[in-house]
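User: Can you write out an input/output pair for a complex, sequences first and structure second?

Assistant: Here is one pair. Inputs:
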Amino acid sequence: MAAPPLIRGTDLSKVYGTLTALNNTNFTLMPSEVRALIGANGAGKSTLIKILTGAIAPTSGTVEISGTPVALGDPRAMIRNGLACIYQHANLAPDLSVLDNIFLGRQPTSRFGLVNTKAQRSEAQALMARHGIEVDVDVPVGNLPTVKQKEVEILKALALNARIILMDEPTAWLSASEVTKLHETVRALKSTGVGIVYISHVLDEIFAVCDTLTILRDGKVVAETDVAKINRPSVVELMVGEKLARDSAQASSKNRHPRGTGEIGLSVRNLTKHGVYRDISFDLYAGEILCITGLIGSKRTELLQTLFGTVKSDSGTVSVTGAPAVFRKPSHAMARGIGLVPEDRHRDGLMLGMTVTENLALATLAKFLHGLFLSSKGMAEAARASIADLSIRPPDGRHEVGLLSGGNQQKVLVGKWLNLAPKVLILDEPTVGVDVGAKAEIYGILRRERERGKAILVVSSDLEEVLTIADRIAVMVSGSLVALHDAGAIGSKELVREIGGIAA
Amino acid sequence: MNADTASRASNVERIKANALPLAILVIMAIFSLTEPAFLTPGNLVGIARQVALIGIMAVCTTFVIMTGGIDLSVGPVLAIAGLVAYFALQADLPLVMVIFAGLFAGALVGFVNGAIIALLQLPPIIVTLATLSITRGAALILGGPEQHLIRDEPAYSFIGAGNFLGLPSSIWIFAVVAAAMIMVQRATPLGVLVAAIGNNERAAYLSGHSTWATKVLVYTISGTGAALAGIIQSSQVHTALATYGPFGTELDVIAAVVLGGTSIMGGNGSIARTVLGVFFLGVISNGMNILNVPIDVQLIAKGTIIALALALASRRQ
Amino acid sequence: MKLRPATSALLFFTALVFAAFSVWAPRFATATNIENLMSGFSFIAILAMGQAFPILVRGIDLSIGAIVGLAGMVVFDLALIFHLPGYLILPLALLAGSLAGALNGFLVAYLRLQPFIATLATLAAYRGLTYTISGRQLVPGLTTTAITDPWIMGIEAYFDVGGWLGLTKWVNMPWIPLSFFLMLLVFALFQVLLLMTRFGRDIYAVGGNEEAARLAGIRTNVVIVLAYTLSGFAAAIAALIMVARFTTSTEALGTGMELTTIAAAVIGGVSLAGGTGSMFGPLIGAFLMGGILLGLTLLGISQFVQQIITGMILLAAISNDRLLAIRRRPKLLAISSGAS
């Protein structure tokens, strides 16, 4: 009889309020298997990973490790069973040294219970030598740049000598040579019988190191196969869903409005912030959707922050509908008709504990003022209009925003800025963590606002999205705008090359 | 994860919505059954009069706590406002100016608190701890350690000790202040902004709001409220004294606010419920006094009640 | 352990303050005054070091003064009502303080109450408990009875260290109180615990990033309970020193200490954001505050002005803490943080 799988997850479900993040999912991992786990944002990957690391307990379902059921929602049980995780965002204690972080929670101790720094140090040095990573082990982790923190995170997981390693976007901050090294490590681990779950958005990596593939969509497994038996287009189609792929193909074939009405909404000239972005120039026209795309870290968000007045530029000019503009804070930008839907709706966008009505009114409170007082009637009416207009569900302004699904939260956030009736609407990754249906609805809203003559600037790293909604596409590579195309005139292949900084 | 905490929050919300009024009724029922003297009009007015000072301060500091802040400096502000009013009386200023001077002293301390906290982004606990010390020192320099008797000032004495339509004037003032603040919370942009800042300060700023101006304003309101309480107290007892509002006053005030369901982490809260929190504590201490419960047991009971109420209501995320 | 820049800045500032007072304040640099400083602030330093543990795990202990009162009353009762020998009273008092601290930790870790609120509630409860068990109330005659047990009174001893070393021939040396040595012992114990054991690493991990600590398999709740227990333990030691000094205890023993100790810890670089600081800072912080207060008194500056100056020092300390935090923050974060 064959050895039992390293992991067998059965009927795993996780329900958050009204949102089902994971729906009766089964998951197995064999020894010496590298299994890719992919899916669009919000497909349930993180939820599955969190269940496997013990960070959260599933609503229902069981997990067996090497044939033995384990206690769920308890990180200690998972670690004891030989499971380690390289987290997407470094999960470290900032004031402890690199050394202490690598051995977090299990520092070797000598007599009298004192930490044996020597043993720690030699083990860490051996580990770094083996995996070709170099970090000063005595610096507090908080002082390291993000890339180095990621390396510490990797070391921390490897130091556990685990039988199962989860890698949640392990290469997100790494350079090409470091990625190669990591992949060598993956292969070496595999040859010793370690099972690896590999999560990545970069399909190249998956085809390079993974044996098998699990695709999640909307909390369900939609495909489970050997990597050798599937090609890229099918993977993408399975990830985004056929209907959306068809819709987007349809929408993209017609209905493009490069340069919209021909009237300039926002004009940017030679905008530079030293060490961040440089010499950015473009015009955004009323009645068009201009997408800026590029890798994470290409400084797109910082550019948007300058356009909205939260980050100062060093030189260059911005003008709105022909008149020069200097913004020192968001209210200045808003006064000139600019609205910004931020990327992280929980951190920067919404008041999760407040009602839909209040959230919708928050950028436009002055509208509802009668003398010193706010008209709650006016607010409720405006909210009803927005809810109908954007089909926010449930259609009740008195609901707390925190209780809505991701997609409806995003619609509330978009609605808040539409209420401002901005001339220029900027959206940073408008559909992150939003389900497919809501995604299509948000695209519909953006197209409608474009027809209404708004100048719309979208920053997105989701190529599918860019190709779906853009009238024109700008590509940003490490702080520079390197190309600006009419959307009909460029295919995804060329775009991918440009984004990667490879000259065509 | 957020959806999860939110749904749990809504259950907690439902419990919170009814627990406090119910608890007050249950406790009042117990007290009136064991001691008939409890449920007499005289005693009930007595409770209201006892809680008026803490009540005014609690109502005025609720916004501060909703923004995620705290104001520990209310005790010495209460003292210094009484002293300022006393010296204004000595200078034969008209009554309006006397009250204004007292309130201004409190508003000033509150303004300084808010300005330091908002502009330098320092932790409110420590900033107001420092201004607590500074204000107490200033009060002692101003008034010295001795009592200043306020004699033959009938108009001033009416503020705290007078009667209007059969009720002590301090109750009326508490009622008016509470009503005004409830109004501010429900019907003005400030109410929405305070909740917004407590919920998500970054998002409030990114929605075009001046978060620091709002913060400065709420601390100023808190200081002014404490000053009003100070004026009423000095008028009630015909004395101004630099050590009024002793250490512990601020804790009573905060306890009332938090019992009212306002999260100490900021965000959601309600001034109307703060009033309930004030009466809850007032009823308990009055009932225990009537039943001759010794002071030590009262302290333990108070601590236990706060801990229990919070275990139910304001759990850490 | 290398000195962090913040610590050396604090040391430098403290030296500057002491030097200034030595020049301008009459009798500041005398044996008597230094003796006063050591006997008057050693127990404050112990409390500040205890307070540092909850702050390190991103909490706070407002009940620390009330625990001092409680432990003091336990000593009073055991000595004067139950006539227990001192060698039993000492451990029992330490146990009482530790248990009170552990309860705080339990409320914070397991009931997940806000530390500020939880310890605010226990502040009232412990003070109430102190009144309840007060031998002064239960046995009225005891109010004026002094505690004479040699084990407890032995804490209020002074050592002529200068004399032993023969230094007194050249300079007038202060007699060093036992409480100062106790303080040094507590410092050594806590510092070793914090910097050299796994428990210490866990404290920093929990304070710096509780979720990361949990995912690394650290029992975060146990760590939090122990942090508050140490705070209660320190409070009990301080109570013993104070009872020995006054030869009695009162229900009000330790009132207001929570604010002083928080101030000393924060001045000493223990960040309220958790995870930053060590025992050295609170120690220096306590004596810096003590030096300033004594110096001002010697300069004839009134108690009232001293309160104002104490407040100002506190403001300066947190402004400095804030500056350091901003400088420590990685650049990337500084760029993306929009709210001002």
